[in-house]
Specification:
heterodimer; A: alpha+beta; 7-stranded mixed β-sheet; 6-stranded mixed β-sheet; B: two-stranded antiparallel sheet
């Protein structure tokens, strides 16, 4: 039976929140240990769990993508696996030689030549002088440095220096490879070469642990995934579920709850702010409701929803327009909803409190955070009766049954059908579940 | 913990409190770590040694020039008559040069080892080199410094017309207790100094004061104050400086027995230093 190459058992790591507490607890811990006492495994005031009870097992040839928003504990986990930090609780067992792409370019001396630095960095990564000599030409070829190998590294461009560091780190053949967000180095052809090298290592049985924010890199390299959120992990998942969970966490992290109920005396009578208007009618409150009319701040991709506007009218508006603008995080004004455009009719707004529900059916908004702005407009008047920018937000989460990864900047998903004509074969059609199939 | 399993595959295990062994364990672990990192230590020394002489007019000559310039300041004070060290068996220029060279091993070793981890912070965070190897790698440059100082001593002996004894060749061995003492203090400071940043400057300042109760630049017999005299007599460092100096310059020395006992004591201190180092080493990376 194949023995696992990485076993992480209930590993936890805590840190002090401030330098002051780090100093205080550092001295206390030092005294405890010198007196022969064990590590304090409880959380003390001013400390937090950077990693809390994380467990997983990997076999040779597995590639694990570790994802999480900033401060989720990814780097702490990688540093524990690399032996930089000791765990406060739990146990890590690594079987095989460990290579670390976090260490690309480690120990480079700018005054020395590329050739000399290959020996330094190679040694620091655990290669013997004989191993370095054997791999020397391969390293130079991989780094594409040619005649520049005898030039001092300080005269290298940043790309050359990174390529050399990466080449030294990647040419070894470790059983376990730790990679931290460094796959995006050099130009496109070099990046392609790096990915191919990693895939070769994987095929030859190297276990890869890749920490990355890039859904594309993780999806390309990994067959398993681990999401960390505030130091906690739900264990190993499929790589697509990992990317989706990371994307969803990331969206909720960016999500800010909008303001509450608006009062009439809070409405400035001028443009320039986030809210304003003449004051004769205003939107007191906005809610986003799912199909069961429950209030929500996030929805799965494709789900229909309601925008509910609580409108207070002080003076009658005979030809009123309720206009809603939807902005994405990157793309602005991706959609607009205007009752005259939709129905060719105006609203009649009588004095009093009214609730307007706007049902948005199958919105096709791709995963991301969306911002809603609204305005009440009177047809004959050239100014807004009321406007409020970004008064509601909705996070659209990754769908359960498909995986959106191609480009986070895109906002709208179109209904598409592929058909491919081949000279020698009959027409191919995209089957919803099975990929391309012969459609003849 | 590292071992090789039945399939010949290296296995690494990280657990809390894995460095809770005894003193012998500390020495064994240090021995193992240093042996495993010998290429790293040599390569780091070679890197720093080579890099410091690149793009300099005098190149490698600086290795010899720097210690000579250091001693020149004392000699200047002596020749203009500001410093009156008293008359001894050894001519003063030779006395102060040999004394200060031996003394220099203590702050030299302490500074190298205590600063070793801070200086290699990048390597601690990114590579898996044992931390003790990084702390001790700076001692490689100290050992080359000791060889250089043997050359400078020879030059001073020739210039002053004093004939050194064969003990000069044993200088690295005679200065070893000083290096070991500096290493022991440096090991503790390298870990504690990264937790409380002002600890190393405090000890460095303290050491400068201790030098004044050690007969480095003055002759012991010239001290009249009974209290200071007693302090010098009870100061173990007095013997670590005086005995090697007398042996090198005169071929004989008093208190050789005391010197040997203190030398054994410095070995024990290194063992204690290593023990404390391993107990606290994982606190270092969290504070770099």
């Amino acid at each position: 039976m194949q023995k696992p190459s990485v076993v992480v058992e209930a590993v936890s790591k805590k840190f002090g929140l401030s330098l002051k507490s780090a100093l205080k607890y550092g001295l206390i811990d030092s005294a405890r240990r010198i007196l022969g006492k064990e590590k304090d495994q409880i959380l003390r005031p001013g400390e937090f769990w950077a990693l809390n009870d994380v467990s997983f097992v990997l076999d040779p040839g597995d590639a694990l993508g570790i994802m999480g928003v900033n401060g989720s504990g990814k780097t702490t986990l990688l540093r524990i696996l690399n032996g930089t930090y000791g765990p406060d609780k739990g146990k890590v067992t690594l079987r095989g030689r460990i290579g670390a792409l976090i260490a690309a370019g480690a120990g480079f001396s700018p005054m020395l030549t590329g050739r000399e630095n290959i020996y330094i960095s190679g040694t620091l990564l655990g290669m013997t002088p004989a191993e370095i000599r054997n791999k020397f030409d391969e390293i130079i070829a991989f780094a594409e440095l040619g005649e520049f190998i005898d030039m001092p590294v300080r005269n290298y461009s940043s790309g050359m220096s990174v390529r050399l560091g990466f080449a030294i780190a990647v040419i070894g053949t470790p059983e376990i490879l730790l990679v931290d967000e460094v796959l995006a180095v050099g130009d496109m052809s070099f990046q392609k070469k790096c990915f191919e090298r990693i895939q070769t290592l994987k095929r030859n049985g190297t276990t890869i642990l890749l920490v990355s924010h890039s859904v594309g890199s993780v999806w390309a390299v990994c067959n398993k995934g681990l999401v960390l959120h505030q130091g906690i992990s739900k264990g190993i998942m499929s790589v697509e579920d990992t990317c989706k969970a990371y994307d969803n966490n990331n969206m909720l992290e960016r999500f800010h709850r909008p303001s509450g109920v608006v009062k009439v005396d809070e409405i400035p009578k001028e443009y320039g702010g986030l809210r304003g208007g003449a004051g004769t009618a205003y939107i007191a409150k906005v809610e986003i409701l799912d199909e069961t009319k429950s209030s929500v701040t996030s929805l799965e991709y494709g789900k229909s929803f309601y925008l509910r506007y609580h409108v207070t009218v002080l003076e009658v508006i005979e030809e009123a327009i309720l206009r809603i603008l939807i902005d994405g995080e990157i793309n602005k004004a991706i959609a607009i909803i205007d009752n005259y455009e939709v129905h060719k009719t105006f609203f009649f707004m009588a004095p009093g409190n009214h609730v307007y529900d706007v049902f948005i059916k199958n919105p096709n908004l791709r995963p991301g955070v969306y911002f809603f702005s609204a305005a009440i407009i009177k047809r004959e008047v050239g100014v807004h009766i009321f406007f409020e920018i970004n008064h509601a937000q909705l996070a659209i989460m990754q769908p359960r049954d498909s995986f959106f990864y191609a480009d986070y900047r895109a906002s709208v998903q179109l209904d598409v059908e592929y058909s491919i004509k081949n000279e020698h074969r009959s027409m191919m059609k995209l089957h919803p579940n099975m990929g391309f199939q012969d459609g003849a | 913990m590292r071992y090789t399993d039945n399939d010949g595959m290296p296995v690494t295990i990280y657990e809390p409190n894995e460095t809770q062994g005894g003193f012998i364990w500390g020495l064994q672990r240090a021995g193992g770590d240093i042996a495993a990192s010998k290429h790293v230590i040599m390569r780091l020394f070679w890197r720093d040694f080579t890099a410091q002489f690149r793009q300099k007019l005098l190149g490698y000559f600086w290795a010899l020039l720097s210690p000579l310039l250091g001693i020149a300041s004392f000699l200047f004070l002596f020749f203009i008559g500001v410093l009156r060290p008293g008359e001894g068996e050894i001519p003063y220029p030779v006395y102060v040069m040999v004394g200060s060279t031996i003394w220099g091993c203590l702050p030299g070793a302490m500074g190298a080892v205590s600063g070793g981890l801070q200086a290699q912070a990048d390597l601690i965070m990114r590579t898996r080199i044992p931390k003790v190897a990084l702390a001790l790698s700076s001692l490689a440059s100290l050992s080359y410094g000791i060889l250089i100082s043997m050359a400078t001593m020879t030059i001073i002996f020739i210039l002053t017309g004093v004939k050194p004894t064969w003990w000069l060749l044993a200088y690295p061995l005679l200065a070893l207790p000083m290096v070991l003492l500096g290493t022991a203090i440096g090991l503790v400071l390298s870990v504690l100094g990264s937790i409380a940043r002002d600890l190393t400057p405090m000890v460095t300042q303290g050491l400068a004061l201790v030098m004044y109760v050690t007969p480095v630049i003055y002759v012991h017999s010239t001290i009249q104050n009974v209290f200071v005299k007693a302090l010098i007599d009870w100061n173990p460092l007095s013997y670590l400086v005086d005995v090697p100096r007398s042996l090198i310059c005169l071929g004989h020395a008093d208190h050789v027995g005391v010197y040997l006992i203190i030398a054994v004591g410095t070995v024990i201190l290194v063992a204690i230093g290593l023990r404390i180092f391993y107990l606290l080493e994982d606190l270092v990376a969290e504070r770099l």
